[in-house]
């Protein structure tokens, strides 16, 4: 009998990914977390194994997956890693576009392709962390919002394709969440605590979805704070 269930979480060293990882450890999962800078993580547990990997490096990603000793036991895959650059379309550099495409589209598709055979064997789950930006018109969010809309549709396609194999696919669409996602942007959540979500709240929703097999699936859920408020950052002179 297996000692624990096995999960793989991307972007696991901070923010929403770390909250999800901690929650899963609490449910008895052994969690393999992929992060670009695992040394910045402030959480440790015997069941939490951070792996250093740049998800935009396809060869590195393939090598890392081959080093996970119990990869065949993975029953939960959480696509969480992400970043955003907001600017007028003519000012967005090709490097930033490639970075966002790789992180939001290429890496999740490659990971899913690599692990689906095991998820089928284990009657597992895939969780996508989307964004409300993928449902709305986002000023200067032209590439980021389009990529999120794309991964939303990919999640919906997978739900339809994999449900007959016992693999449950969930698309979680958070609204404004207070993380360091906004560190390099020119706007951030308002101070009003009712105007933003916290990473642990996202993790709580996922816990309710994965804690037990009820024989039914919620394929998509949007989570929003009570109020919509953003603020522009003060420009540094």
TrEMBL record:
Pfam families the UniProt entry points to: adh_short (PF00106)
Annotated coiled-coil segments of the chain: none
Gene3D superfamilies xrefs: NAD(P)-binding Rossmann-like Domain
Record-stated family: Belongs to the short-chain dehydrogenases/reductases (SDR) family.
Name of the protein described by the UniProt record: SDR family oxidoreductase
Organism: Leptospira soteropolitanensis
